[in-house]
Specification:
elongated, 2 domains, mainly alpha
Length: about 200
């Protein structure tokens, strides 16, 4: 039996169902997840422009469609997903057919996929050097584990804090200078009303 194209009424009904499901999903999303999706998309766009050229059309291949699908699922974390995915595909992958685009939007709305930082790094083959060059923070690296990145980030943060707020030099031990015990030094200091005691002269 030959496949028949859906009627305009059927297309409209499907779009309505997709929009309805998306509104339900959007109600469950918080501002934090949306902000994270926006940051991740910005970093993925920087990677894409570096890898494929700024604004260049993706190749019509399995690798190209895999990239389209990757971006579509990240666009699913933002409001108005169907329109965003459609606009993105028109700019980067105009070769995606309307039928495939409709199927992709349905997949994103019904079964969104969220990749962790390291899994996404392996998917796009992001190295640590390229990660640093593109100033990417929410995606991992294939040649630098998460534990290594945490140690490095902690060291950089400590160095930055030390440069911003220099530590005061630690006070010495004045009782050793005076040749007395710590207990005696505090007792004499208390007896003099909080001032440092004078050196003991026999």
């Amino acid at each position: 039996m030959p496949n028949r194209r859906p009627t305009p009424a059927q297309v409209a009904a499907r779009k309505y169902e997709i929009a309805k499901r998306y509104r339900r999903k959007l109600a469950k999303l918080g501002n934090r997840s949306r902000a994270m999706a926006a940051i991740r998309l910005s970093e993925l766009t920087r990677w894409l422009h570096d890898w494929n050229g700024a604004g260049a059309e993706l190749e019509a291949s399995d690798a190209g469609y895999s990239t389209v699908r990757l971006f579509a699922h990240h666009l699913g974390g933002l409001p108005d997903t169907p329109r965003r995915v459609t606009v993105w595909c028109a700019a980067y992958a105009p070769w995606v057919t309307p039928r495939d685009l409709e199927r992709l939007i349905s997949e994103v709305v019904e079964c969104p996929i969220k990749w962790g930082a390291d899994k996404l790094a392996w998917k796009i083959r992001l190295t640590d050097a390229k990660r640093s060059e593109l100033k990417i923070k929410t995606i991992g690296a294939i040649d630098c584990a998460k534990a290594q990145r945490l140690i490095r980030a902690k060291a950089k943060r400590a160095a930055r804090d030390a440069a911003r707020r220099p530590r005061k030099p630690k006070a010495g031990k004045p009782w050793e200078v005076l040749g007395i015990s710590r207990r005696t030094w505090f007792r004499r200091r208390k007896s003099t009303g909080g001032t440092n005691p004078a050196p003991y002269i026999p």
